[in-house]
Write a structure and sequence with these properties.
Elements (H helix, E strand, L loop, with lengths): L1 H23 L18 E6 L4 E6 H12 L6 H24 L10 E2 L11 H8 L3 H15 L2 E5 L2 E2 L4 E2 L9 H5 L21 E7 H11 L12 E6 L5 E6 L2 E4 H7 L7 E5 L3 E7 L7 E2 H9 L4 H8 L4 E4 L1
Parallel strand pairs: 1-3, 6-13
Antiparallel strand pairs: 1-2, 4-5, 4-14, 7-12, 8-9, 9-10, 11-12
Length: 322
């Protein structure tokens, strides 16, 4: 009997203990649980190429100058808002890059005001000189875009993306892998049909034989044969027309090297022989990776908001209100 009482007592003890053990077991975090919000810098240091000085400024003030340098103020407000988010994201991306591997030529800055290197920037005085009588209206419009969307940041796997952008596509953007030799999942080729309607989409330039020879020999370091008919050979392109390689004087060179040597507006181009030289026709304007600014404006005028524009050109991103 005493043994039975002891057994019942032990059983009751373990029945009380089991719920206690369950209650103190650590719970797995839920995917829906609130995540810590990352704080991003509200200042940026810019190396101003004209004055050769590194200047630290408020991020919003920087964005006003960057948008003014990079996108026409006449564009739709939603396109300007998309540009504000792109400029902000790229500035943070550059901050991260410089923190990991500083560039000596930036003298401690996060990025340059040189558009061919990073993204452009205009001071207030430069904006006044650029816009003249329309300064007040343009300044107000761009500041409104910064106030509305300038705090937004595009992220991929939690990090600010390389928010590349350019002026006009030939109807389709190009991937980062093709243009930059680096695979970035959010920078893929996308359709941009409205761009072909731009009056600036297609341009033509004519070179005499002598001008063509000088550009090829100085820019490509290629000695051309005597006959101009033998100067241009096979051209390899992507489906969008982006020139991968072109044979010049029997030597294969990259399309980007040829574009640089001949100061072409776009890496999408064709060449035809004329009676006394060569005609080069380019389509699009810029490196063709990321957001087409003309395309963004066209989408906005067709009813798209700035976040729809961003998600069209940058794939798989999340948009954070930093």
């Amino acid at each position: 009997m005493r043994f039975y009482v002891m057994l019942c007592t032990l059983a009751a003890f373990f029945m009380l203990l089991i719920p206690a053990v369950v209650l103190i077991e650590p719970q797995k975090p839920s995917d829906d649980a609130p995540k810590a919000v990352q704080e991003y810098p509200d200042t940026v240091t810019v190396f101003l190429t004209d004055s050769e000085k590194a200047v630290t400024m408020d991020m919003d003030e920087y964005l006003v100058g960057a948008i003014a340098a990079e996108m026409p103020a006449s564009y739709h407000p939603q396109a300007l808002m998309a540009q504000a988010a792109a400029c902000h994201t790229y500035a943070l991306y550059r901050k991260n890059q410089e923190a990991q591997s500083p560039s000596a030529d930036l003298h401690g800055a996060d990025l340059s005001s040189e558009p061919q290197k990073h993204q452009g920037y205009l001071t207030k005085e430069e904006r006044k000189n650029k816009w003249g009588d329309t300064f007040e209206a343009n300044e107000k419009k761009i500041r409104a875009a910064v106030q509305a969307a300038g705090s937004e940041i595009m992220l991929y796997e939690g990090e600010p993306i390389c928010a590349a952008f350019f002026a006009i596509s030939p109807g389709q953007t190009e991937s980062a892998l093709t243009a930059f030799g680096q695979s970035l999942p959010y920078l893929q080729s996308v359709a941009c049909d409205a761009d072909v309607l731009s009056p600036d989409c297609e341009r033509s330039v004519v070179y005499t034989d002598e001008e063509f020879r000088q550009a090829a020999e100085s820019g490509l370091q290629i000695e051309l044969p005597e006959s101009a008919n033998d100067w241009i050979g096979d051209i390899q392109t992507t489906d969008s027309g982006y020139v991968l390689t072109i044979r010049v004087g029997g030597t294969d060179v990259t399309g980007s090297a040829f574009r640089k040597a001949f100061s072409l507006r776009s890496p999408v181009f064709s060449i035809t022989r004329t009676d006394s030289g060569f005609r080069i026709v380019t389509k699009g304007y810029g490196h063709l990776v990321g957001m087409s600014q003309y395309g963004a404006d066209a989408m906005a005028r067709s009813g798209a908001d700035h976040k729809q524009i961003l998600r069209h050109f940058y794939k798989g991103i999340t948009i954070s209100d930093g």
